[in-house]
Description:
about 450 residues, six-stranded mixed beta sheet, oxidoreductase activity, mainly beta, glycoprotein, Immunoglobulin-like, single chain
Amino acid sequence: MRLCEALSSLILVLALAFLYNDVNCEDPYRFFTWKLTYGDIYPLGVKQQGILINGKFPGPLIDPVTNDNLIINVHNYLREPLLISWNGLQQRRNSWQDGIHGTNCPIPPGKNYTYVLQVKTKWRLNKILNDGHNLPFPHGLLINGRGWNGTTFTVDKGKTYRFGISNVGLTTSINFRIQGHKMKLVKPAKNYYIDVSTRFTKQILTTTSILHYNNSSNRVSGPIPQDVIASSLFQARTIRWNLTASRPRPNPQGSYQYGLIKPIRTIILENSAPIINGKQRYAINGVSYVAPDIPLKLADYFNISGVFSVGRIPTNTNKGKSLLQTSVMGANFHEFVEIVFQNWENFLQSWHIDGYSFFGVGFSSGQWTPTSRAYYNLRDAIPRCTTQVYPKSWAAIYIALDNVGMWNVRSENWARQYLGQQFYHRVYTSSKSYGEMNIRSQRMHFFVAGPEVATL
Length: 456
Ligand SMILES: *[C@@H]1O[C@H](CO)[C@@H](O)[C@H](O)[C@H]1NC(C)=O
Ligand SMILES: *[C@@H]1O[C@H](CO)[C@@H](O)[C@H](O)[C@H]1NC(C)=O
Ligand SMILES: *[C@@H]1O[C@H](CO)[C@@H](O)[C@H](O)[C@H]1NC(C)=O
Ligand SMILES: *[C@@H]1O[C@H](CO)[C@@H](O)[C@H](O)[C@H]1NC(C)=O
Ligand SMILES: *[C@@H]1O[C@H](CO)[C@@H](O)[C@H](O)[C@H]1NC(C)=O
Ligand SMILES: *[C@@H]1O[C@H](CO)[C@@H](O)[C@H](O)[C@H]1NC(C)=O
């Protein structure tokens, strides 16, 4: 923490000196001020304390277009330090702003910091986990902050609508459906259920909201759609890119077909739930991550020894004794890599990689072996930044390591990542021309971090 403190005056001065350079870029800048406070919310009809952004729950929507620069000044009026990370946005050459423990110091109570984000709440839960308990099963599911039938989406018949669906919960995977629709709105005008329910949990939670066709006077009717879990694997494989309608995202080197590139190596990541020193921990390849006092990104930049060393996490499954480690995996810029997530546990795993999108090429049950590659989808998988891995199953991805930096790889189950199911992937090049943004181009301000971190 001392580094965070010592750097604060130095970095702030550098930052101001470079402010004008930043503002000269051609791409549009959009400025936001977010004030985070506590407030009463009633999402399930019962009063509870929530975290509000500008007095609202859920918080405001930012709808940026490619190349927009989002400048978000976040004021922390909470009683605990705050870090905000934003899933799903690739921060090109810039892991400095990732808002995760290994790259940023948290914003202390009463302070503000300016950056970019996506919403996740972690809230008085650290203590439960530190004491070695599981997080309680949620009381309910919310759609846009409202419980059963709480939200209605009104649409016009014949038009096409895009729904942004984001599970901002901490631990539970969900299934999203619209009654009678295949996500193509071509049905007669009446009202339909939108049904969100948990998956692979002992207890199934469901919530609904209403899809309302404009001018329709028919009330919602019929049973809530039912489903069987077995269809999930099938469903995962059917999510395909329509190559006739559009090609994968453009990139500066031109469009490439991921299936034609031979991965340079295979990394196998297996999750486990070991007890270490008498406490419940979660691990990847037998290593459970512990956060250092100094963000890894800063230790790397300032060559501070003793904080981490690259290679402390195996790149293949490891049946040895599980241990605690500040785990950083090394990789070279421009490598094209196959990653296999193997899940022998009886729970639905969800893996997220910051800074990248990747192609989910295979999902299946049991043990992954090299012969599993025969069933890969090498043609029309969609680019994504999170992948599910079904219980006692595996998932394989192809990823082009085209973004230099120190990037977090984690379980999206928040209890698991907090208790060690994460590591950092240091994607490195010595070449300055492809290199990452300089620390001095960042309007950075480091703070002294407290013992607890709230992540929004
Ligand atoms: C904090 O907020 C003030 C006023 O809104 C702003 O001028 C300042 O740049 C912010 N500081 C940081 C570190 O973001
Ligand atoms: C939601 O609306 C449906 C249809 O009006 C009703 O049958 C159901 O009881 C409602 N659920 C709740 C929890 O209000
Ligand atoms: C519903 O229809 C009315 C009148 O045709 C129109 O003014 C309104 O914008 C429509 N609402 C939505 C959500 O499409
Ligand atoms: C809704 O009803 C109004 C009034 O009857 C009509 O003018 C309008 O075209 C209708 N809108 C749709 C989307 O059907
Ligand atoms: C793919 O896109 C084309 C062009 O928009 C469309 O005609 C076709 O129906 C789409 N295919 C599927 C499976 O949705
Ligand atoms: C860290 O070490 C590298 C390689 O020795 C060097 O190029 C770089 O300038 C050092 N960085 C700082 C901030 O001292």
